[in-house]
Amino acid sequence: MNIQLAHQKVREFLTIRVKIDAWDLDIPELHSPTSNNYQPGTSAIALPIQNLVHKRAGLNLIETSVRFPYRITYRFPFDLAYDALPFSGLEGVISTIHLLASLQLPDENIKSFQPAEVEDSVTVERIAQEDGDWLVNLNFAFDVVFNTTDFPDISSIQPADYYNIENPPSLSEITIRVNRAKPEFIKSNTSTYVEDSTINIIK
C-alpha cells in the first residue's frame, strides 16, 4: 500500500456507491448517458491531497495519514428555477457518502477511513459562456490512515534511476529480537541480558 494505491481504492469505493458518469471532468453532460429518465449528468474530480504525513511507527513500519478531497458535480437545465433544484436529494447523496464512509473501508489495508469536515458541502454556480446551465457541486473529503508498505511510482516525474537506495529496507518487514536474560537480570541494565535470536516477519 502507498499513497497512489490508497487514492485508487477510495476512488473505486466512490464509483460503486455513487452514480458518476465521468471522472476528471469539470462540466458533465446535461443528461446522464447511463439513465433513460433524464437524470442529471454527473462528473467527479479528485482534488489535490491535503495534510499528508508519514510517521515511523516501528523499526520498518511507516504509518501514513492523508486527506483526500473530492467534488461531484451535477448539471441541471438553465431554465430550471433555483428553488426547483433538488437540494434535498443532493443533500441526501452527500449524507449517504458520509454514512457509508463511517461504516465501510475501501480496502482491508486501510486502517481508518472517516469523513472530514468541509466548509462548503454544497455550492451552486452557472456555466459561463454557454447556455447557463446550473452546476451543483458536492464537496467532501476523507481522512485516511494506512501503513505504507511500498514506495510510490514517481517515474513519470523523474528518471527511475535518478536516485537508487542501496539495499532498501522492506517497509512491510517486522524484526523481533529475542533476548536471553542472565540470572541477575535487570530490565534497564543491558549488560544483564544478551541477544539470543532475531525473527524477521515479512508481509
List the helices and strands and how they pair.
Layout: H1 3-15, E1 22-23, E2 41-46, E3 50-58, E4 61-76, H2 87-103, E5 110-116, E6 122-126, E7 134-148, E8 173-181, E9 193-202
Parallel strand pairs: 1-2
Antiparallel strand pairs: 2-4, 3-4, 4-7, 5-7, 6-7, 8-9
3D structure, described in words:
By secondary structure, the protein is mostly beta strands. The protein is built from two helices and nine strands. Strands 1, 2, 3, 4, 5, 6 and 7 form a seven-stranded mixed β-sheet that branches. A two-stranded antiparallel sheet has the order 8-9. The N and C termini lie close together (11 Å).
In short:
The chain is mainly β. 15% of the residues lie in helices and 39% in strands.
